[in-house]
Amino acid sequence: MFRDVTARFGGPDLPWQGPPPERGGGDADEPDMARDRPRYRAIFISDIHLGTPGCQAGPLLDFLKEHDSESLYLIGDIIDGWQLRRRWFWPQSHNDVVQKLLRRARKGCHVVYVPGNHDEFARHFLNHNFGGIDVVEETVHVTAEGFRLWITHGDYFDGVIQHAKWLAYVGDHAYEAVLKLNRHFNSLRARLGLPYWSLSAYLKLKVKKAVNYVSDFEVAVANEARRRGYDGVVCGHIHHAEIRSIDGMLYCNDGDWVESRSALVEHHDGRLELIFWQPGHAAEVPPSRAVETV
Fold first, then answer.
1. Are 128 and 58 in contact (CB under 8 A)?
2. CATH class of 5-292
3. pLDDT of residue 193
4. Crossing angle of helices 208-228/199-206, nearest 10°?
5. What is the C-alpha to C-alpha distance for residues 287 and 133, in angstroms, rounded to an integer?
């Protein structure tokens, strides 16, 4: 089928925490819903940035149609309030994403929303339920093998966000310009019959300061998860999908739906896997990035 970044863990046989689904987490009109149970135990996605031209709502809808789960974690920056305050942008496809998520909850999927910095307005509604979706500051997911994963967006570990928010707003403008270039670049690739490729992600990883920023962020989040006594952490924020062990602590970042079109999933046997979505199929990922932790 496809190769993905995976991680397998062993641990005590602890029960899954969260309300059991009434049935599969998908839509009744989708072809893969005929299975006895959803395809995955859990799906983790973040940084959709609804309300921006860079949001890849179409590919996300395709992904959700083909991937259902018992639990769905929305780990921040789902709606981009920063951009919407500057300029309103809300096409029908963004409505469709919201409706899809609400329908998932209505069909029995356990949907949890952890707001981030771009949708910080939602932090005013913590511990409320919105259309079947629980809104919380952070949460814990227990895998099938008993591993306790801390779920947080991650912006609290971003020094720019916490100590120089004005600089984050400036950077957001620059990032928007790069994403606009990325859209034109991939429009040309599509006309040439070439698959999607993120120019913005490539440029980010080639800039030394950006590489150091990602590494420092990952270490800071992993250290906090260790301090709190968790087995691992799942976050978003930096738009860099990853599964790796940091000094024995499992670090997972589910990526984004602006650049990488990525999601983290948990199989029913407890395996964790990153999926990079391409129209019609999941992109192959080099197995050298796989992580084995016991």
1. no
2. alpha beta
3. 78
4. 90
5. 35
